[in-house]
Amino acid sequence: MTVRFTGKKPSRRAFLKGTLASTAGVMAGAGAANAAGPDPLITEKQDWAMGTGDGVDATPYGLPIRFEDDVIRRNVEWLTADTISSINFSPIHALDGTITPQGCAFERHHSGAIELRKEDFRLMINGLVDTPLVFTYEDLERFPRVNKTFFLECAANTGMEWAGAQLNGAQFTHGMIHNMEYSGVSLRTLLEEAGVKPEGKWVYVEGADASSNGRSIPIEKALDDCMIAFKANGEALRKEHGYPARLVVPGWEGNMWVKWIRRIEIKEIAVESREETSKYTDTLADGTARKWTWVMDAKSVVTSPSPQSPIKHGHGPLVITGLAWSGRGAITRVDVSKDGGKTWETARLANPGQPMALTRFYLDTEWNGEEMLLQSRAMDETGYVQPTKNMLREVRGENSVYHNNCIQTWWVKADGEAENVEVS
User: Fold this and answer.
1) CA 19 – CA 25 distance, rounded (Å)
2) What is the pLDDT of residue 19?
């Protein structure tokens, strides 16, 4: 394709118009002597237009079309001994917008995903309360309903990257996250129904699965924005996400979002269970560990271009896109660097940031085969700025696994392929 320069940069519209015209010739030339001939996909009737398609009941529950069968959750076999106590990753490199389809939302299990019928569900509230209560699923449905959209991020998301660039793909480095609209009951409503005694300072939450995954939560958080959710994205929770009901703890690490929730005990002190002592604490360089690091700090990642989403369309207009989030509030700004952090450009937010929810950002730019070191840097409404990996290491050493919210780097090569590298 030839572009005539007239003293000013051609517009994206003009460039794409020329690209489309030349593409038609290339496509026609794939199997024809005349490369400039007409595009058969335009000029000839295709098979899909010469007969009838599937009827309305072919798939009573709609499924993705087979051409998108690569957009799936994936695990990394060597991360864990088996898949019962393990994790897989959301295909964030292949999604757009902010809402994660339930079928793509990552899983984390401590003893496997259980099947629990609504009829067998019970939620007990006991301990330091005026009236111990047990709720059925139908009981929960009778309380005033709330709908809120939040991200859920595993505390170990990006954890393998502490020691350097490890996993080659945004799905694997940052895919322990999803963002869904939850429908359910405010936890405050249920606690007020039972009546929390003044000495009650903590809630201890357990699930109905074999691990129970018990976690302690300060009463202030429980009474603030926590939910008991029984729907996600408008439909029932999936089995792997805690059907029929789970706890939602906005902005805090995902292991606190107890699935298949069965009991909430009001206590004077934290239980200090296995999942908040030997696990989910941050080991520091001097061998000590910091605990109660519940909040997920501001973070972002470029999802395309990235190792699993290389540039395939050739030179010219390029959309750089990614996700940003913060457990402390709304994302207010995302900057993108194409040179490893030497210079930054402010990206466009698809919509104003929402507290504790994913924000989609875009940078519309031009690419002509130059190598790039792509990074993104998020800022939230508290003024917090996403740090580099070296900034985190200076405070926490290199022994940590949890709460790695460092700036990520993709090396985009001249052929459009990308690789995970470290530029700290």
Assistant:
1) 10
2) 54
240 phi/psi in degrees, rounded to 5 = -70, -10
Three-state SS for 134?
A: strand
Whole-structure pTM value:
0.91
Q: What distance in Å separates the CA atoms of residue 175 and residue 161, rounded to the nearest whole number?
A: 13
Distance separating alpha carbons of residues 340 and 410, to the nearest angstrom = 9
Give yes or no for a contact between 217 and 200, defined as CB atoms under 8 angstroms apart. no
Cis peptide before 355 (omega within 30 of 0): no
CA–CA–CA angle 245, 323, 67 (5° rounding): 80
Q: Find the DSSP H helices in 102-181.
A: 137-141, 170-174
| Cα 307 from Cα 1, distance rounded (Å) | 28
CB-based contact 205:261 (threshold 8 Å): yes
In Å, what is the CA distance from 419 to each residue of 78, 265, 308? 20, 47, 9
What are the beta bridge partners of residue 196?
129
Q: If we measure between CA atoms, which residue out of 240, 218, 212, 250 comes closest to residue 124?
A: 212
Tokens matching residue 376 = 């993104």
Residue 23 phi, psi dihedral angles, 5° rounding = -60, -40
Beta strands in 76-165 (DSSP E): 86-87, 108-109, 122-127, 133-136, 146-153
Q: 304 with 171: CB under 8 angstroms? A: no
Rg (alpha carbons) of the chain, rounded to whole number: 25
Residue 388 has phi, psi (to 5 degrees) of -80, 170
| Residues ≥6 apart with Cβ < 8 Å to 122 | 134, 135, 136, 262
Longest dimension (CA), the chain: 85
Euclidean distance between CA atoms 231 and 275, whole angstroms: 26
**What does residue 66 show for φ and ψ, rounded to 5 degrees?**
-65, -20
Strand partners, 180: 150
DSSP letter, residue 387: P
Task: Answer whether 255's CB lies under 8 Å from 154's CB.
Answer: yes
Q: How long is the chain?
A: 424
pLDDT digits (tens, 9 = 90+) for 170-214: 999 999 999 999 999 999 999 999 999 999 999 999 999 999 999
